[in-house]
Amino acid sequence: MVTYIDAATAPLKNTGQVRLYSPEDFKAMHKAGQVTAECLDGLADLVKPGVTTQELDDFVYRFGRDKGVLPATLYYRGYTKASCTSINHVVCHGIPNDKPLREGDIVNIDVTFVVDGWYGDSSRMYPVGELKRSAERLIEVTYESLLLGIEAARPGNTTGDIGYAIQTFVEKERCSVVRDFCGHGVGRLFHDTPNILHYGRKGEGIELKPGMIFTIEPMVNLGKPQVKVLSDGWTAVTRDRSLSAQFEHAVGITDTGCEIFTLSPKGLHRPGFDKAS
């Protein structure tokens, strides 16, 4: 049985309870989310053939340094990079390296900055040059599934409603939802209760209440949903080597719906598809 707790009185560790944050906390999360979103905007012009993911990671590190904030992934459980860069059939947690990106690649860049103790967690897909239609379609389906999940994130609904909205749309489009990874509570902790599955049934899971903060981050495959983690202990790939895509926002449940903390300041929610405003 899940219990809810006032975030102001909760210990700074994952206790299995769902934290309910205050309006002031939402303002702090918006600040953290906007730093991350601004960094993701800045990456849009850098992703191109010949650029290495290490160069992109260097940009993320310098961006945080110049803002006076730290990337949450740096030295997290032994991870040594400022971001995760997942290319083509890599589902998530791809490690930046010196291999150049190639024309037609797709890459997810996942960034989290810690701003005044709050974690702004978000990721976007970036096209590398011209894409095949199948890759474009996968990105479109994944982004739309994120929006549908966010639409279901409102008080009185459940975590299962979020998963149901995502799964039914993705499978209708003849793609599959990854089951091995999920969204998560976020705020004062990088990963917290509850888990947000991207598949499920209406009305199942835990009730969404005002003050909850978590990520929604569907991972969608063109092929089958099964994945495996490589020997580095981080990189997750599709077992059938089909393309995979992911988008992620950090959101907070309000009295009437939800607030998205990580919206793009420039309107680059889908870099390469959206034009900067």
TrEMBL record:
<feature type="domain" description="Peptidase M24">
    <location>
        <begin position="28"/>
        <end position="255"/>
    </location>
</feature>
<feature type="binding site">
    <location>
        <position position="191"/>
    </location>
    <ligand>
        <name>substrate</name>
    </ligand>
</feature>
<comment type="subunit">
    <text>Monomer.</text>
</comment>
<feature type="binding site">
    <location>
        <position position="248"/>
    </location>
    <ligand>
        <name>a divalent metal cation 2</name>
    </ligand>
</feature>
<feature type="binding site">
    <location>
        <position position="248"/>
    </location>
    <ligand>
        <name>a divalent metal cation 1</name>
    </ligand>
</feature>
<comment type="function">
    <text>Removes the N-terminal methionine from nascent proteins. The N-terminal methionine is often cleaved when the second residue in the primary sequence is small and uncharged (Met-Ala-, Cys, Gly, Pro, Ser, Thr, or Val). Requires deformylation of the N(alpha)-formylated initiator methionine before it can be hydrolyzed.</text>
</comment>
<keyword id="KW-0645">Protease</keyword>
<feature type="binding site">
    <location>
        <position position="121"/>
    </location>
    <ligand>
        <name>a divalent metal cation 1</name>
    </ligand>
</feature>
<feature type="binding site">
    <location>
        <position position="110"/>
    </location>
    <ligand>
        <name>a divalent metal cation 1</name>
    </ligand>
</feature>
<feature type="binding site">
    <location>
        <position position="93"/>
    </location>
    <ligand>
        <name>substrate</name>
    </ligand>
</feature>
<protein>
    <recommendedName>
        <fullName>Methionine aminopeptidase</fullName>
        <ecNumber>3.4.11.18</ecNumber>
    </recommendedName>
</protein>
<keyword id="KW-0031">Aminopeptidase</keyword>
<dbReference type="InterPro" id="IPR001714">
    <property type="entry name" value="Pept_M24_MAP"/>
</dbReference>
<feature type="binding site">
    <location>
        <position position="184"/>
    </location>
    <ligand>
        <name>a divalent metal cation 2</name>
    </ligand>
</feature>
<keyword id="KW-0378">Hydrolase</keyword>
<dbReference type="Pfam" id="PF00557">
    <property type="entry name" value="Peptidase_M24"/>
</dbReference>
<dbReference type="InterPro" id="IPR002467">
    <property type="entry name" value="Pept_M24A_MAP1"/>
</dbReference>
<feature type="binding site">
    <location>
        <position position="121"/>
    </location>
    <ligand>
        <name>a divalent metal cation 2</name>
    </ligand>
</feature>
<comment type="similarity">
    <text>Belongs to the peptidase M24A family. Methionine aminopeptidase type 1 subfamily.</text>
</comment>
<dbReference type="InterPro" id="IPR000994">
    <property type="entry name" value="Pept_M24"/>
</dbReference>
<dbReference type="GO" id="GO:0004239">
    <property type="term" value="F:initiator methionyl aminopeptidase activity"/>
</dbReference>
<feature type="binding site">
    <location>
        <position position="217"/>
    </location>
    <ligand>
        <name>a divalent metal cation 2</name>
    </ligand>
</feature>
<dbReference type="InterPro" id="IPR036005">
    <property type="entry name" value="Creatinase/aminopeptidase-like"/>
</dbReference>
<keyword id="KW-0479">Metal-binding</keyword>
